[in-house]
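Input record (one chain):
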Amino acid sequence: MKAGPMRTGTTTGGESRRRSAVFPGAGILLAGALLLPSCAAAPTLPASSSVPSASQAAAQPVQAHPQSPVAVSPAQPESPSPASPAPASPAAAIPDIPVRPAAPAASVADPVPVSLTVAGTAIDMPVVPVGVSDGGAMEIPDAFDRAGWYRFGPAPGASAGTAVIAGHIDTKSDNAPFSDLKSVAAGTVVQVGREGAPALSYRVVGVELMAKDRFDGSSVFRRSGPHELKVITCGGKWLDERMDYSDNVIVTAVLE
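The corresponding structure, as predicted from the sequence alone:
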């Protein structure tokens, strides 16, 4: 797996064997997230003793009063003189107009993952947040015994989208814990520890090899649809001409 420019710790078992990009789609998704426009606040009626005309309403700015509903009352008719004709019936009362705050409610961020354990394997390691390298690939911690969570995507336990955690498969001298991913069986329990929140238990529903030259970033780095956890490392054949593995091992798990 690619080691990005970040330095998250000392590699305890030798340097990672490979240095090429892993997930080129991550940078594109990040750019899309940063370009989301902000929402404009909807105008509301002002508090006044009379209802403005359509032309006045179009020309005059209005202000919202988010703390209380605005009530608009009709003007009261004057008492008629004896010679005057009978006044028209007073207009029906205009009901109160509820006003909502213009600013959207602040969203609460999902807790950050801090550890990953896969039952029946050597995978029991800390997890750190990572971003995108200069080359547009997902960063991977330098240390082979820790994993990286893609912090620009959903977190474990999110209501939708895919939480992605990745790590190295080996070093120059030995296998890393993530080398066990390729043999994980369906039904295996994956536990994700979270900062300031209870741990989450996932159950593996599939393991696949995805060729790196046909890597589908849109299916891996999803921000919508059913929530899943994907744990990823390298796999397949080692290609000397590329100094890289041919595939990615992708373990997909769902919340229990």
